[in-house]
Amino acid sequence: xxxxxxxxxxxxxxxxxxxxxxxxxxxxxxxxxxxxxxxxxxxxxxxxxxxxxxxxxxxxxxxxxxxxxxxxxxxxxxxxxxxxxxxxxxxxxxxxxxxxxxxxxxxxxxxxxxxxxxxxxxxxxxxxxxxxxxxxxxxxxxxxxxxxxxxxxxxxxxxxxxxxxxxxxxxxxxxxxxxxxxxxxxxxxxxxxxxxxxxxxxxxxxxxxxxxxxxxxxxxxxxxxxxxxxxxxxxxxxxxxxxxxxxxxxxxxxxxxxxxxxxxxxxxxxxxxxxxxxxxxxxxxxxxxxxxxxxxxxxxxxxxxxxxxxxxxxxxxxxxxxxxxxxxxxxxxxxxxxxxxxxxxxxxxxxxxxxxxxxxxxxxxxxxxxxxxxxxxxxxxxxxxxxxxxxxxxxxxxxxxxxxxxxxxxxxxxxxxxxxxxxxxxxxxxxxxxxxxxxxxxxxxxxxxxxxxxxxxxxxxxxxxxxxxxxxxxxxxxxxxxxxxxxxxxxxxxxxxxxxxxxxxxxxxxxxxxxxxxxxxxxxxxxxxxxxxxxxxxxxxxxxxxxxxxxxxxxxxxxxxxxxxxxxxxxxxxxxxxxxxxxxxxxxxxxxxxxxxxxxxxxxxxxxxxxxxxxxxxxxxxxxxxxxxxxxxxxxxxxxxxxxxxxxxxxxxxxxxxxxxxxxxxxxxxxxxxxxxxxxxxxxxxxxxxxxxxxxxxxxxxxxxxxxxxxxxxxxxxxxxxxxxxxxxxxxxxxxxxxxxxxxxxxxxxxxxxxxxxxxxxxxxxxxxxxxxxxxxxxxxxxxxxxxxxxxxxxxxxxxxxxxxxxxxxxxxxxxxxxxxxxxxxxxxxxxxxxxxxxxxxxxxxxxxxxxxxxxxxxxxxxxxxxxxxxxxxxxxxxxxxxxxxxxxxxxxxxxxxxxxxxxxxxxxxxxxxxxxxxxxxxxxxxxxxxxxxxxxxxxxxxxxxxxxxxxxxxxxxxxxxx
Length: 963
Known about the structure:
Layout: H1 3-9, H2 19-31, H3 38-45, H4 57-68, H5 93-112, E1 148-150, E2 159-161, H6 162-173, E3 177-180, H7 187-200, H8 208-231, H9 246-259, E4 264-269, H10 274-280, H11 286-293, E5 314-320, E6 323-329, H12 339-354, E7 362-369, H13 370-375, H14 377-385, E8 397-402, H15 412-415, E9 432-436, H16 440-457, E10 461-466, H17 484-492, H18 496-506, H19 512-527, E11 536-537, H20 565-574, H21 586-599, H22 607-620, E12 625-629, E13 644-645, E14 652-653, E15 666-670, H23 676-687, E16 693-697, H24 708-715, H25 718-722, E17 729-733, H26 748-753, E18 761-763, H27 768-780, E19 787-791, H28 805-809, E20 816-817, E21 830-834, H29 838-849, E22 854-859, E23 861-863, H30 867-876, E24 882-890, H31 896-899, H32 904-908, E25 912-918, H33 929-944
Parallel strand pairs: 4-6, 4-7, 7-8, 8-10, 9-10, 12-15, 12-16, 16-17, 17-19, 18-19, 21-22, 21-24, 24-25
Antiparallel strand pairs: 1-2, 3-9, 5-6, 5-11, 13-14, 18-23, 20-22
Helix pairs in contact: 2-4, 4-5, 5-6, 6-7, 8-9, 8-10, 8-18, 8-19, 9-16, 12-23, 14-23, 20-21, 22-27, 23-24, 29-33
């Protein structure tokens, strides 16, 4: 190969997708070489040079293409007419032009052949006219069909008649498999796919034994659905009928992955076909599924409410040629694609545990619906995570069950704006394989190619299983009401199993009696409750598995979170050294100097250093810490600085990663600008990593609104629905600072509304010592439940919100903090209960006014509510006649509605209990700072000394029963 040809083939820029750009660039070069970049100028300098007016735009591509294929430079006329200049191999310029046209036709099939592929089992719509696939569009006529041309990079003989070239292209790109990959900009990946598709012409090599097994899997997929339909008429099961090819797809995927060294496969999918997958892939005993249909299910440990059968997860081990593979099907709510980031997080944690840095041992598999994949934003957000350093999992296998109708009544024109439901996949340079679900052999080929690509290039891959839905969205639905034409075809259409059985019979690979016996055998097995999958392995034990049984389900606040003062000082000092020559920003240098004084006990500790000390103490004990969010390394409010940046080199450095050689792993991730996907990821990570502290921080507390589905469907309810434990921490900056409606409130009331059955913890710590002990408690107790923390903003640097080093070394987290000033108990006439930042506003005003008759009590843990501490406090103030709940949030927000019933003992004693705070409001805060300050001062005055206005405040005895 000439040096010129090597130049073109070694450059990823010279591909069909960039042709127009290169043409324009080359014409600019011809007019003025200095007008283009030096790198491109050097490339074009290697070409034989002509005058700018010797070549037109339409001939540029011909010339470049001919040169790329090894032809000598043709001779061009000023007007584009060719002269009879012989090329190196004797071909004329006319031949070179024809040759270039053939190469363009090959490129067109690679780019657009999928549009003429036979993908739809129902043939609902006629195939489009794709002009680029017509030889005449490229100047090739019928007389050229039998002429021999160089086949370029098309796999096969070097020279072939055009007719054979086209035939190979149609078999490769326009059969039951349509491949989209020309959008990929990495040349080795694209060439790998071209060779794989064209060398096999999109068909797998299968033995007759393999074909019979393929029919057996289709028989199983159809058999379980028919059995459930007969036995449980009208009950919802979200049938897989019409998409039965999913079962052989998954079986092939698992066996091939096991062969390639994958040891765990974690699957996320919505409800369509879930019972089929549980039965025929994971080996869930059929009698267990039947019992769920019949309502004969006992709740497992940790479950209180349970869930419908098509949301439940399962785990098992199956045998493969290279050893057992652990399969996990994640629990999933009906919010369809929300499982995507959760599975990715679980996979990342498992990979970390195995030290699987490139995803060679743990594989994520996500099974999507067509409309959900196109329509739900969490899909895009999760894809955006796929190649990032701290959220990537080495590539995900995506399978889209494309029933061409989406939910219930959808018309494809209304479900998306893109040609395919998978077009969002192109954003991550992933290949997309559209395959006809009625051609199971093509499905097997697509599966093999997709998995091999993922394992080789560590990128996401997408198999679009184009099929149909034989029944309605659920079995009680009548889809023909809204889709009469589609369902007229479906009623007349044979199943994939019927079609493939007939195909084997026609080719002599199977007899009709054997096909019928196969169905009868499966029916017998399922009716007798036998496991119908490949052999399921039992009693598999490995150090890579997590034992959740060691964690208690019983709530307890008892936990010693202190540590020896000397050890604490030692950890603090180890947080401070920096690499040689590391230049801090002046503001950070000031913070570092203050931390040195704090570590030595010469200055009171602020929130940022206390938080870092909590992480350091856990890391020093060997526990990993993972902190994620949009600005977590530094901290949105410039307080954390767990990751610092050298002003000279730009390098970053995490002191928490350099405490000791045997410490736990620490990572602070400045994530993509996503809440839903990132929080879902971290939740999934925490469900698979109980021995490490996993935290997600919202940039502002109300940013968590964008992840409300994760909070509702997983964080708050997964324990009671599915018995899942999780120790995830959510850090939500909260506090009304006069900065407007947004970024003021973390919506504390929403989390409190979700509280029940000790499902989550909701805390509002107000001192550095409190956050230190709270974070340590989350790991040191044998208890794993999500922790929601309303973290401060202005308090991060408040002169009163500080703690002594001894406060961190001793004691533990206090769910309730009684009056801290030495006030004479007999003079107390009013007790104010509050939570959060407003405490310091009340405290400063009380000091200013020198009041000794008002006590202030902080409730730092709002759920589970500290009943015993609260009762003891009430006993201390039994002589007091007036009690107040004070909050800075509006009356219909904050903690009031969820805290007021706690004062019932006072009501029974005839005491007065009042609410003081802002009146009910549709927005969390006002938009003008002056109004905010006026409101804040008014509620402080009223709480400390003012006359209670019944028109502005609810007396507790009228609302306390709303519990």
